[in-house]
Amino acid sequence: MKVLIIGFGNMGQTYANSFVSSGFVQPQNIYVLNRSEVQKKKQFLLPKENYFLKPRKDIFDVDIVILAVKPQDFNSLSHSIASFITNVHIVLSVMAGISIESIQSKLSCTKVVRSMPNIPTQIGQGMTVFSTSNEVDRKELFVIQNLINTTGKSISVEDENMLNAATAISGSGPAYVYFFMEAMIKAAIDLGFSNSEAAFLVNQTFSGAVQLQNTSALSHQEWIQKVASKGGTTEAALNIFNKTNIFNNIKNGIFAAEKRSGELGK
Question: What InterPro entries does this protein map onto (predicted)?
């Protein structure tokens, strides 16, 4: 299998590194097209001759073309690469807001996979939601999902519009987690812990809670009940959360993110 990665920012580098580390794609079979010179320290294990600044026919002699450029750069990119794309290629896009139909139209191709990864893909713990055009067959879907899974886990959705919801949940989700963690850290500091102690307390609390939940069949509500005894300290905090409607505010924030994702895609 041969892969061409167009755009070598965070996601392009993540894919290159994950493909090589997993052994799923051999380094010599990964090509990179980037508009600026790639720093040597970011070239990973790929041969230096596999990096290109301008499109040319021979580097498109691949099975999969990954579009890892910024959405606003797609229009200009499409003009420069459309003549090299064929219906044999599977085009995998990580560009937010650019529809499958738009990619098919601008590149005159049929086999398109549109995905929404999140930032933990950088350490192999990502969550990616993706949707495919009808022309992608089951075997090709299997290959694509295996490629994506080198960066973490994934789910496939038939309705492309669900990628807006995925953007609001898993795409933006890490920021929500960091927001809540930061509030806990600030509270810990106000209660007398040092900055490093507060960060350590909160980081380990989140890590342990997630791992515990992942190894159990109990629901989140059941775990809350296990931690929050009647009249205890946890219940005191939860009472404040409920009075200030934090639960519904979080949901409303996610709904706003989903709406904005849809607007950006128009």
Answer: 6-PGluconate_DH-like_C_sf, NAD(P)-bd_dom_sf, P5C_Rdtase_cat_N, P5CR_dimer, Pyrroline-COOH_reductase
pLDDT 10s digits, 117-147: 999 999 999 999 999 999 999 999 999 999 9
What gap in Å lies between CA 69 and CA 55, rounded to an integer?
14
DSSP assignment of 109-124 equals -S-EEEEE--GGGGGT
Residues of the chain under the 70 pLDDT cut: 41, 43-44
Q: Give a yes or no: residue 165 inside a domain.
A: no
Binding site per annotation, positions? 6-11, 68-71
Residue 168 lies inside a defined structural domain of this protein: no
Annotated binding residues for NADP(+), written as ranges, equal 6-11, 68-71
Q: How many domains does the structure of the chain reveal?
A: 2
Residues 231 and 103 in one domain: no
Domain residue limits at 243: 173-264
pLDDT for 255 equals 96
Same domain, 219 and 124: no
Residues 79 and 41 in one domain: yes
- Could you tell me which of 77, 65, 87 has the C-alpha nearest to residue 147? 65
Query: What is the Cα–Cα distance from 244 to 262, expressed in whole angstroms?
Result: 29
